Amino acid sequence: MQTAATKQMTNLDAIRGAIAAKMDSASFTSWIAPLNFQIVDNTLVLSAQNQFSADFIKSVHAGVLSAVANEYGLALNICVRGAVATPIANDNSVQKYTPVQTACDLCAFDAFVSCAENTFVLSACKKVAAGAVSFSPLFIYGAPGCGKTLLARCIRDASAGRVVMMTGGGFVSEFTRSLREGKIFAFKDFCRNCDTFILDDVNALAGKRATMDEFMQLVIDLRNAGKNIVLTSTTTPNNLTGFDRRAQSLFASGLVADVVAPTDDVKRVILMRAGVPTDIATALAGRIAADGHMVAGVATKIKAFAELMNTNITMDVAEHLLADTLKKSKTPITMVRDMCEKLGVSYDAVCGSGRNRSLVLARQTMMVVLKGATKLSLSEIGQYVGGRDHATVMYAIKQIEKQLSSDLVLNAQINEMIAEYK
Predict the structure, then answer these.
(1) Which CATH superfamily is domain 332-421 in?
(2) Are 130 and 164 in contact (CB under 8 A)?
(3) Is the pLDDT of residue 395 over 80?
(4) Is the sign of the CA dihedral 233, 213, 124, 364 positive or negative?
(5) Alpha-carbon torsion 38, 41, 42, 45, what sign?
(6) Hey, which bits of 234-345 come out as E strands?
(7) Predicted confidence band at 1 (pLDDT cuts at 50, 70, 90)?
(8) What is the C-alpha separation between 281 and 313, in angstroms, rounded?
(9) Strand 43-48 relative to strand 36-40, pairing
(10) Is the entire prediction scored with pTM above 0.70?
(11) Degrees to nearest 5, angle at CA 254 with 248 and 222
(12) Above 60 in pLDDT, residue 88?
């Protein structure tokens, strides 16, 4: 009896080692190592702590586990501890998955008010909507309110084939629900059975390991099948926090394009389209934050006031109505925070000790803008960008000035911000 038990323990150790050799160490440590291993009636029984873990392991790692069990002449069962073990099944014919329906207005590309800086990303979006492209995924990034979601919806409504569009939070919820309801394979089929897949706000997947593993495999499968993939984010792939290097590299492997915040001219056009008189729209454009959501809110407030109060909107009325929204002063600290939104970095990161390339460029750009738009000394500028000293600011300004002659986009961006903050 003791010899049989010792032999079984040896077999289980060997099986664990064989599984570990076929998987990356992170997945094995997170999902397989916590399982309870048993051999019962020529069946390898793996018991998980809860139903979620069991369902996820069945959906993602069943192939590897079955292969190792077969090598030892064993069948495979994955179950929850204390529950009756049931065989793994993948019969899509009996699974039906229905996503949660959300109502959305139809969007045409004409709804996106573009400026010269956004011509490239707009052209890329139209190309995706026209059919299969050579670049996939299209990764669109920009500060909140710059129009990423609107562009994603325009692609959705202009594309001829089947389009699946989800928010990042929606993907997490639907993936979890499909695991809970035992419909994971139907969910996989739903996401893959499309010509274009759009995920709005990929940042929502940060730190969710199981969901991220599933999503990365989805992106790889869709790309290998020649399908279009569109992702949106508030920052570049390399600056995504809560994502490992594999995910960052995968997202950056297609076309990465940025959307700049609305310019004064864009804000003026948005207000005029909403019915705001031309003279008032022109006067207000420069005093509203460069945020499309806020511009739309201002237009809605003015329009609602005119309709409810049955009155014409004058500049005095607009000033009083929008007293809590219009910019009153431009202090150095508000300038820095505003530039953080425009450049897609966090204020804490700018003031911190991070040294990745895009963060350093943003920090140095802010120093140059403060120098051009204010009368602050170099030491004072350094205090508003994380307490940098005089020499650091001087070095940063020299580095940017070297790039301005060859980088026309950076040159235009800096000149635009200096003009805005003066």
Answers:
(1) DnaA protein, C-terminal DNA-binding domain (1.10.1750.10)
(2) no
(3) yes
(4) positive
(5) negative
(6) 255-258
(7) very low
(8) 11
(9) antiparallel
(10) no
(11) 90
(12) no
Question: Is the per-residue pLDDT at 255 higher than 90?
Answer: yes
Nearest alpha carbon to residue 139 among 55, 248, 58, 243: 248
**Cis amide linkage into residue 137, ω under 30° from 0:** yes
Choose the weakest-confidence range: 115-129, 167-181, 288-302: 288-302
Structural fold of domain 2-88: GMP Synthetase; Chain A, domain 3 (3.30.300)
For residues 323 and 317, give the distance between their C-alpha atoms in angstroms, rounded to a whole number: 10
Distance of CA 102 to the CA centre of its chain: 20
Q: What per-residue confidence (pLDDT) applies to 393?
A: 92
Q: State how far the Cα of 415 lies from the Cα of 422, in Å rounded to an integer.
A: 11
- Domain 109-258 CATH (choose: 3.40.190.170, 3.40.50.300, 1.10.10.10, 3.30.230.10): 3.40.50.300
Strands 228-233 and 163-167: unpaired
What is the spatial distance between Cα 23 and Cα 31, in angstroms, rounded to a whole number? 11
**Whole-number pLDDT of residue 28:** 81
**What is the C-alpha to C-alpha distance for residues 93 and 40, in angstroms, rounded to an integer?**
30
19 phi and psi angles, rounded to 5 deg: -65, -45
Per the prediction, the chain carries an average pLDDT of 85
pLDDT at 219: 93
Asked whether the beta carbons of 381 and 367 are under 8 A apart, the reply is yes
Is the CB of residue 287 less than 8 Å from the CB of residue 328? no
Q: What is the CA radius of gyration of the chain?
A: 27
What are the residue ranges spanned by the domains of the chain?
A: 2-88, 109-258, 264-321, 332-421
Name the nearest CA neighbour of 332 among 292, 376, 300: 376
- For the ranges 21-35, 160-174, 400-414, the maximum mean pLDDT occurs at 160-174
> 403-411 — which CB contacts under 8 Å span 24+ positions?
409/117, 410/365
What CA–CA distance (Å, rounded) separates 303 from 312?
10
Spatial CA neighbour of 18 closest among 73, 58, 55: 73
The number of residues in the chain equals 422
Specify the pLDDT at position 87. 42
